[in-house]
Amino acid sequence: MATVTLIEAVTMALAHEMARDERVIVLGEDVGVNGGVFRATAGLQQRFGAERVQDTPLAEAMIAGVSVGMAAQGMRPVAEIQFEGFVFPAVDQIVNHAARLRTRTRGRLQCPMVLRVPYGGGIHAPEHHSDSPEAMFAHMPGIRVVIPSSPARAYGLLLAAIRDPDPVIFFEPKRIYRLQKQEVPDTGEALPLDVCYTLREGDDVTVVTWGAMTYETLKAADQLAGEGVSCEVIDVATLSPLDAETLIESVEKTGRLVIVHEAPQSFGGGAEIAAVVAEHALYSLRTPIRRVAGYDTIMPLFRLESEYMPGVARVIEGIRETLED
Amino acid sequence: MATVTLIEAVTMALAHEMARDERVIVLGEDVGVNGGVFRATAGLQQRFGAERVQDTPLAEAMIAGVSVGMAAQGMRPVAEIQFEGFVFPAVDQIVNHAARLRTRTRGRLQCPMVLRVPYGGGIHAPEHHSDSPEAMFAHMPGIRVVIPSSPARAYGLLLAAIRDPDPVIFFEPKRIYRLQKQEVPDTGEALPLDVCYTLREGDDVTVVTWGAMTYETLKAADQLAGEGVSCEVIDVATLSPLDAETLIESVEKTGRLVIVHEAPQSFGGGAEIAAVVAEHALYSLRTPIRRVAGYDTIMPLFRLESEYMPGVARVIEGIRETLED
Amino acid sequence: METIADFEIQHSQFLDPQGEPQDTLPAFAEDADSLRAMYASMLLARIFDTKAVNLQRTGKLGTYASCLGHEASHVGIGAAMRPEDCLAPSYREYGAMLWRGVQMHEILLYWGGDERGSDFAGPRHDFPFCVPIATQCLHAAGAAMAYQLRGEPRCAVSINGDGGTSEGAFYEALNMAGAKKLPVVFMVINNKWAISVPLELQTASRTLAQKAVAAGIPGIQVDGNDVIAVRHWVERALERARRGEGPTLIETLTYRLSDHTTADDASRYRPREEVETARKLEPLIRLRRYMETRGLWNDEREQACRAEAIEAVDRAVERYINTPRAPVTAMFDYLFANLPPGLVAQRERAVRRAGGGAH
Amino acid sequence: METIADFEIQHSQFLDPQGEPQDTLPAFAEDADSLRAMYASMLLARIFDTKAVNLQRTGKLGTYASCLGHEASHVGIGAAMRPEDCLAPSYREYGAMLWRGVQMHEILLYWGGDERGSDFAGPRHDFPFCVPIATQCLHAAGAAMAYQLRGEPRCAVSINGDGGTSEGAFYEALNMAGAKKLPVVFMVINNKWAISVPLELQTASRTLAQKAVAAGIPGIQVDGNDVIAVRHWVERALERARRGEGPTLIETLTYRLSDHTTADDASRYRPREEVETARKLEPLIRLRRYMETRGLWNDEREQACRAEAIEAVDRAVERYINTPRAPVTAMFDYLFANLPPGLVAQRERAVRRAGGGAH
Ligand SMILES: Cc1ncc(C[n+]2csc(CCOP(=O)(O)OP(=O)(O)O)c2C)c(N)n1
Ligand SMILES: Cc1ncc(C[n+]2csc(CCOP(=O)(O)OP(=O)(O)O)c2C)c(N)n1
Ligand SMILES: [Mg+2]
Ligand SMILES: [Mg+2]
């Protein structure tokens, strides 16, 4: 059984699915000989050939657009966008095409494509390499926004994303690419999309998060457990469409909600979670909802990034304040 | 004193500011001889010349990008994106440049540009001409998202947007471009950005909205007034940065909140408003927050668009349900 | 200084505006039925077009983009392609779509605000209308990649306008297709105007065919009012692509004789004389004259052909008019292959509201 | 078939790799001080570069993009421009930036993760480093529009790489600049690689200069290791632009002798021999030989120049290392000209947390 990091789990899922389904094509900048700037596609071109693992010219709108074209004609493209800061030229193809090809043609054409996007800060990267724009995409109907937070979920959710007949943006939390290893058997078993994963059960407060922040959140929960605070930690995993039910049920149990994310707070993913709870579980809320998130500023260059990103201390602060309210 | 429609107010503001400040340049597709496909720039090229009112080649990334370049070098570009469905190629320049030029250069360069974007449904327009993507932009730090909902506010807010030293996306609700006339004196007086406008005071429920939906909301409030329900109607006007204080104060008074918008509900502008209230006015809330919004689907072509868009009936339904909770 | 690369852009015309051959005609032009079929198709497109504009004027159709004057460019493309090839059109190429089997009532449904118009009978793998300018060039490139990967002898063809050549997506598609030798043909219908923006304001490029040079692929300009030239060069480009030799860019020079769409008033921005001059070059006259001179066509055939077209158009209009609105559930049922749980409640609400009349 | 347009792409080199003149040198090359200044600047760039890579290796700098091998392309641009012109660089053109007055410690601050590096002393109107590939081409076009509108005799210059020529923004900028005859020069530094993607996979275009043809503007390829050629052609293009005759595209042919950045390992994807071959063509050797042959340079001058550069670099490193981190308030204080009320609380919280150490 393989003990792998999150990024190795990504590679494993890609290799598994390429071997199983010859419609699966990997494409992007530097994904071939170089194996990706993060090495997510390392070894794939050697194994599957330069046709199925294609280095493309440097153009993200193109990468997304040809993926739409391929997907519509029966392939299963898995495209890599090198960093989240470079996904924006692809937005047009995602919103205006990938997300609506099925709707536009009443199901005549479909768009089973995956756009893998490493995202987030905390790796001392250069400018435009540390943002968390997932909420922008979550607002677009017709695409899924999926974010793994462990090697096992990276493997299972990526398999599910590739097999899904609809487009998925798969945001990979680059800060935890190599943070921890986990035993992940290469069984080809996908994990369900569209559901949250409860990572830790608890009674006092529901803490909802995703991506790299699950680590800080779990650590905070651990620490607070020592003080007798029982946190329920939920990894959203599929940010959109959101599994509101699981979140609501949890808040109905705990009566308190803290949402943790790295992206700027305003109009971020946490806003929707707060909204569905304020709509459907208001009477269960014993204290105000609280968000522990990035400031509404530009993610600073790395000398200040640790000031920007919520760490364990801020998560604990947020939970404590909520319990004291 | 001029009695003008919303779109005439836009033209009036453009003309006023071009006359006052020669750094103001209008550019975009068909804005010149043709005066814009909606006629927002009608007559401006005749009056100010083809240098100051420039038809550009057909390329939205370019329109946004050259605006950034011009703004950085001391001009005040006011660019038109023909319809909101075509703003997506410009997203990269907006997120990665316009929004962060000041931050990136520690104020050495600034980016005083306005991107005017007609948006929204209800005019029986073709595909990709009826969306409401404002929330995507609201999540980006460093830009303002401003949306007028009356001729007077179109005039005053557009003047403010042009004069503001930072970038503004000015979403114009095309459905109400010509819905109603209003006396708007061409005094050159700007209205404040970053504040909500309370359009109607009331005690029973706070109804927050923006753009074209202010009309439906005010009608609903009128109708409900007949039944003895007193609605406070607030036009957000500047969606981002959000004037949370005004909203919170209102909910503290009324104890109830309904948010109305045309965009898909999930991760939409309403989510943030719900979140700030659930954070800061939870104990004032007597009933769950409710959103009256578009479905989380692709805005349908026009034969079904009226089923998609919240109309007066749905607004009333939402308010009633909230009062009955 | 050393010259390290040079390029020539050619222009091709077979029939002049009077229908006089300027060159040896390609083989397919020997076949009278083939010429008649193309003429009939152009006539059908024109009659359909006139009707559609009328439907819009009388409130029975939404905004509509006329194809008046472009018939040769559109039909020439349709006639050159094989059914298994893939078309990624823009929004006004009815001549190409009809030839490939899209039904007229489907086109009307689309402009009538009904997505079912894009669930068309024509090749099921063809892309639907594409409004966001030039984005479809990338879909064609992607489709071509799929065929190349699967070793299928199929090609993709995208169509956009002169204005579309200013969009980044257009160049990205050309460059990608060149780099990968994709079996794709990029058609640029140069009708001189992008809404109100004339070609001179759109680009300093003397021809649009020369944009191919940037991608290192062949580019040619053809007379877009000469259906023989269009079909011939598209066929050649498709053959080349099918042989694995890569993409071609073809510019067809024509003119938009109508307003941009029914929402536009072209008299605001372009001189009537320019339109009148262009009208003399329109594509139906010349093919008809050519055929008439050779005894392949006459008034009788013209009347019969016209009558048949009118009848077909009328039937299509009737079918369109009688198509009931789709149920409100359609919004939800094609969003994803499987409706996510969170949307079930929204769907129910929409159904209830539609039933209850509240919206 | 009729030829309606033709194009030639020229290549220009003044000094061959051995420093032998291949052509009559431009006037500025008569001036020994001018040649020496360019050489000194290239040497400074190289010494700075080596130091920066070392700083990164020892954990004192973040990811850094080396300019090794590009010195002639970069310094040639810097030397050709006037201070009032505007540079829109990419991320490794230190030779151009230093020439224009940007300070070395500022460049280090930038790669050290501090925005103050872009608040540089160089021309205050110059654009900062630009990481999102090719987006800066549009800024240069926009800057040129501003100068054109105000009637100022100023030009903008953008710089991007071979990979950058695949981005839509690049073509959109060229096309716009052509259509409006903007006073802008687009530099493409063709160093053969875009991270691991070699030029052949990037495009089928034989030269990158020919991409100008798509925009109807002049394009030329110059030897990018020949600082005289680079400076000369950039000067000519700037003169042309200043005369109101519009934009030019200049491709400089060079080679990336280093890894893409310090985060890259080029040995994974390119043969050592290719690098070794390219190293023989590098730009410092040839100018030095040319000057030495003519008695304009000698070992003594070389030593002095080198010593001066080392000292300057050391001073810059010291200044960089001693620059304290910016306060946490910086995140907020440059977001908008005036902090919106909603952000005041966030700012206070950030200050409190920074003080309290919690983050
Ligand atoms: C990305 C994008 N921007 C703007 C528009 C609005 N628009 C529709 S058609 C058109 C002009 C297109 O001109 P051209 O490419 O020459 O095609 P034609 O209509 O002449 O066939 C414009 C600007 C659009 N549909 N898509
Ligand atoms: C839009 C965008 N996509 C991807 C990247 C990641 N990236 C950084 S440099 C680079 C290669 C650039 O190659 P080239 O243009 O040849 O410039 P060079 O680095 O060789 O100077 C890539 C893909 C980026 N910075 N921006
Ligand atoms: Mg056109
Ligand atoms: Mg390169």
Note down, in words, how this protein is organized.
The complex is a heterotetramer, with two copies of chain A (325 residues) and two copies of chain C (359 residues). Chain A folds into two domains: 3-183, Rossmann fold; 197-324, Rossmann fold (3-Layer(aba) Sandwich). In chain A, 36% of the residues lie in helices and 19% in strands. Chain A has helices at 6-20, 44-48, 60-72, 91-96, 101-104, 134-138, 151-163, 213-226, 244-254, 269-280, 302-308, 312-324; strands at residues 3-4, 24-28, 53-55, 76-80, 114-119, 144-146, 168-173, 182-183, 197-200, 205-209, 231-235, 238-240, 257-264, 290-294. In chain A, α7 (151-163) links the parallel β6 (144-146) and β7. Chain C is an alpha/beta fold and 359 residues long. Chain C is 45% helix and 12% strand. Chain C is built from 13 helices and eight strands. Chain C has a six-stranded parallel beta sheet, sandwiched between helices. In chain C, α8 links the parallel β7 (219-223) and β8 (248-253). The longest helix of chain C is centred in the N-terminal third of the chain and has 26 residues, at 32-57. At the A-B interface, α4, α6 and α10 of A face α4, α6 and α10 of B. β1 (2-12) of chain C pairs antiparallel with β1 (2-12) of chain D, so a sheet runs across the interface. One magnesium ion binds at residues 161-163, 191, 193-194, 256 of chain D.
Instruction: Tell how many strands the DSSP assignment of chain C holds.
Output: 8
In the CATH hierarchy, the architecture of the largest domain in chain C is 3-Layer(aba) Sandwich
First-residue to last-residue Cα separation of chain C? 71 Å
Low-pLDDT windows of residues of chain A: none
Molecules bound to protein: thiamine diphosphate, magnesium ion
Q: Structural class of the secondary structure composition of chain C?
A: alpha/beta
